[in-house]
Specification:
The protein is mostly helical. It has one domain. The chain contains four helices and no strands. It has helices at about 5-20, 25-40, 45-60, 65-75. The longest helix is centred in the N-terminal third of the chain and has 18 residues, at about 5-20. The protein is flat and about 45 Å long.
């Protein structure tokens, strides 16, 4: 169950979201509101379970040495961008 403090925070954000929806909404704001709605519906446990499943999948794909090295770096490195890889344009 959601704690009282978290429930109040979600309610305040929902109130603001109703005001924002009257105007145009950005993709970032829509994603944030969707995440908060998921939190309200399913609770924190849903996100914890999803994180565990993702970590288990990641552990199956990569070696322990890779994961240890990434942990020392502060996280898995990002994939190179097209410009960093020498590409000049995207193909569809």
């Amino acid at each position: 169950m959601l704690s009282q403090r978290l429930r109040m925070k979600v309610m305040n954000i929902e109130k603001r979201s109703r005001e924002v929806q009257k105007e145009t909404i950005t993709v970032c704001e829509a994603g944030r509101l969707g995440g908060l709605e998921t939190l309200r519906r399913y609770g924190r446990c849903h996100f914890v379970t999803a994180g565990r499943l993702g970590q288990r999948s990641m552990a199956g794909l990569h070696t322990a040495d890779d994961r240890r090295r990434w942990g020392a770096m502060g996280g898995r490195p990002k994939k190179p961008r097209l410009t960093e890889a020498g590409e000049t344009r995207q193909y569809r």
